[in-house]
Amino acid sequence: MQSFRDLLQSDRIHVFDGAMGTMLYAKGVYINRCYDELNLSNPDLVREIHAEYLHAGADIIETNTFGATAYRLHQYGLKGSLVDINVAAVRIAREAAGDHAHVAGAIGPLGLRIEPYGPTSFDEAKDMFKAQGSALLEGGVDLFLLETFSDVSEIRQALRANRELCDLPIIAQMTIMTDGNTTFGTTPE
Fold first, then answer.
1. Of 145, 157, 162, 154, residue with least CA distance to 183
2. What is the chain's percent helix, strand, coil content, to nearest 5?
């Protein structure tokens, strides 16, 4: 299979999978639990969802790691499982993808406010993103996908953290309101 960088050079449209959390919820896993932990406790369910997206035509699938950062995992008593959860997520996605799809390491917002909007420093945020990125890299992702960020300062730290780790491609997505600003009222510059 060609590298993700080579894939980007082709003229064809590349199809990503859809929302893992939405699919888990539809299959009876409710929002009161840590979806990322399912990589350890119910890998078959996660693999099944990846397979459904692949069957629907996805050629890039995301790991089930949207909330697998130290801060979010700590809320479920799972901070010590950060590496295991992220590495397992890559393994599950890779098993589902085989040689037919690329695996993107999904990284979501930390779930806390960083400076200038909150008490968490840029360096603390970057370190949390780096810990998750390092585990995803250890698992063997083809690229990183930073998704659903609404704070420009936060996504910058996620970009910096993962760029310090390696030179894999990074796709960065932000949530922008209809007025063209972030939910913080700032422009996405």
1. 154
2. 45, 15, 40
Domains along the chain with CATH numbers: 4-174 (3.20.20.330)
Tens-digit pLDDT profile for residues 94-141: 999 999 999 999 999 999 999 988 999 999 999 999 999 999 999 999
| Cα distance between residue 93 and residue 50, in whole Å | 7
pTM score, whole prediction: 0.94
Model confidence at 155: pLDDT above 80: yes
User: H helices of the chain, where?
Assistant: 4-9, 20-26, 38-41, 43-55, 70-74, 82-97, 122-139, 152-165
| Cα distances (angstroms) measured from residue 153 to each of 105, 161, 175 | 20, 13, 13
| AA letter at 157 | Q
